[in-house]
Amino acid sequence: MVKVAVVVGSLRKGSYSKKLAENMAALLPEDFEAEFVDIGNLPLYNEDYDGNEPQEYLDFREQIKSSDAVMFVTPEYNRSVPGVLMNAIDVASRPYGHSVWDGKPALVASQSISNLSGFGANHHLRQSLVFLNMPVLQQPEVYIANSPELFDENDKIKSEDTVAFLQSAMDAFVDHVKKYV
Ligand code: FNR
């Protein structure tokens, strides 16, 4: 079984990013499993913790380390990556030389309540993943606009075209991940 860690860049209970991530995870094939990873419990990263880690850091790093791939689904905050997601990225990138992100294939998806689709967050996140040596799926890029109109009352994506597009993205991600596992 190929394990995909799902990291959502919003802690909000009704998060559109979380709903989008759940819809995307449901499109994975049977030999892939998605594990949603909690990032809301991580204390703000402080270099003084290196070698004296809070248990939450150790648990989070282990969850990423034991995964074969990572799927990031995030909103955009102030034209960039939400602080809570950057914090999680920093936590798992340290101590220096022991980043658990290293080499993990990844997918980046962004969403927004506007028609801008979180483009800024998507690309700022991609930039960090380049530095972290994570091979990121290049195409198709996943930008989802106008999220409040996306879901039905059961939090399922209404548009068949959007589901077909996301299926093509997940299929490409699966092929991408298989090159590394
Ligand atoms: C936002 N939002 C937002 N939207 C956007 O398209 N570009 C942006 O730069 C921002 N900036 C921003 C900053 C902050 C602090 C908040 C709280 C919100 C709106 C954002 O798209 C909206 O709140 C989404 O619903 C957030 O995603 P979740 O929480 O639904 O996953």
UniProtKB/TrEMBL annotation:
SUPFAM superfamilies on file: Flavoproteins
Family per record: Belongs to the azoreductase type 2 family.
Keywords linked to the UniProt accession: Flavoprotein, FMN
Lineage, opening ranks: Bacteria, Bacillati, Bacillota, Bacilli, Bacillales
Protein's name according to its UniProt entry: FMN-dependent NADPH-azoreductase
InterPro entries: Flavoprotein-like_sf, FMN_Rdtase-like_dom, NAD(P)H-dep_reductase
Superkingdom to which the source organism belongs: Bacteria
Keyword Flavoprotein belongs to the record: yes
A UniProt-annotated Pfam family: FMN_red
Domain (NADPH-dependent FMN reductase-like) ranges: 2-147
Subunit structure as annotated in this protein's UniProt entry: Homotetramer.
